[in-house]
Amino acid sequence: MKKVMFVFMALIVSVGVAAFGGQESLAAETVKIGFNAPLSGPAAAWGLPGMEGVSIWVDKVNSSGGLKIGDKNYKVEIIKYDNEGIGSKALLGARKLVLEDKIVAMLMLGGAPSAVVQPFLT
């Protein structure tokens, strides 16, 4: 599980480093990122700290002018889905986040739920 958290945090850091492009004003558009993780149930001890870290990152990015993509800065919005650490619920969450919420990226913890979601995302 330490490897999962390391990979997750490495992703957050790499996206965050690219995001801080100055104090330019935010564009009207918003970049939606999904967070599909256990936020309740036995595995919530993994998902809740991840969600807290993502929330801190989003606050920092948005207060620093947004996520710079090309010549524009975009506000970041996190859309969370509680998969309770169950693969079938993670797949339902992925479908909702992609097809209904129109996210452009999804953050997940590793393990069985992400393995169930992978075929849908590829």
Output the strand order for the largest sheet. 2-3-1-4
Biggest beta sheet summary: 4 strands, mixed
Rounded mean pLDDT is: 85
- CATH architecture, by name, is 3-Layer(aba) Sandwich
Our Rg estimate from Cα atoms comes to 14 Å
Poorly predicted runs: 1-10, 13-24
CATH homology superfamily name = Response regulator
Strand content: 15-25%
How many distinct beta strands? 4
- Whole-number tally of structural domains: 1
Structural category is alpha/beta
User: The CATH topology, please?
Assistant: Rossmann fold
Shape: globular
Helical content stands at 40-55%
Number of helices in the DSSP assignment: 4
Q: What's the SSE pattern?
A: HEHEEHEH
- Gap between N and C termini: 24 Å
Assign the CATH class: Alpha Beta
Structural notes for this entry:
The chain has a single domain (2-6, 30-121), classed as 3-Layer(aba) Sandwich (Rossmann fold), CATH 3.40.50.2300. It contains 4 helices and 4 strands, in the order αβαββαβα. The protein is globular. Strand 2 (67-69) and strand 3 (72-82) form a beta hairpin. Helix content is 51%, strand content 21%. A 4-stranded mixed β-sheet has the order 2-3-1-4, with helices on both faces. It has 122 residues and is of the alpha/beta class. The protein has helices at 2-19, 44-63, 87-100, 112-121, and strands spanning 30-37, 67-69, 72-82, 105-108. Helix 1 runs parallel beside helix 2 (44-63) and helix 3 packs parallel to helix 4.
